[in-house]
Amino acid sequence: MIRALGDPLRLQIVTLLARETLCTTHLVEETGAKQTNLSNHMKVLREAGLVETEPCGRFTYYKLKPDVLAGLSGQFAELAESARTAAENKRACP
């Protein structure tokens, strides 16, 4: 999932989808990416479980899965808390 969000275009797509559900045409217009390139990035986001599709006639709409993002956010919050707690723990070198 982190790898999927590590690409600047995919992060831009996720940011756009956080605001509204969009079809491929909208995403191409907003990002300036070519449709084939965008489709490849959408596949990565779908396979990572971040995005789901919603068919609508001849168009496909994409929307974020907020529960997945919330779970990821929770995991990062736990890591941050562990890092705060462990900041003073230093293992002595032999």
TrEMBL record:
Query: What keyword terms does UniProt attach to this protein?
Result: DNA-binding, Transcription, Transcription regulation
HTH arsR-type domain ranges (all copies): 1-84
List the InterPro entries. Answer: ArsR-like_HTH (IPR011991), HTH_ArsR_DNA-bd_dom (IPR001845), HTH_MetalResp_TranReg (IPR051081), WH-like_DNA-bd_sf (IPR036388), WH_DNA-bd_sf (IPR036390)
* UniProt cross-references to Pfam families, sorted A to Z: HTH_5 (PF01022)
GO molecular function ontology, one term from the record: DNA-binding transcription factor activity
Where on the tree of life does the source sit, at the highest rank? Bacteria
- PANTHER family per UniProt: ARSENICAL RESISTANCE OPERON REPRESSOR (PTHR33154:SF18), TRANSCRIPTIONAL REGULATOR, ARSR FAMILY (PTHR33154)
Which NCBIfam families would you find in this protein's record?
HTH_metalloreg
Instruction: Identify this protein by name.
Output: Transcriptional regulator
Q: Which organism is it from?
A: Streptomyces minutiscleroticus
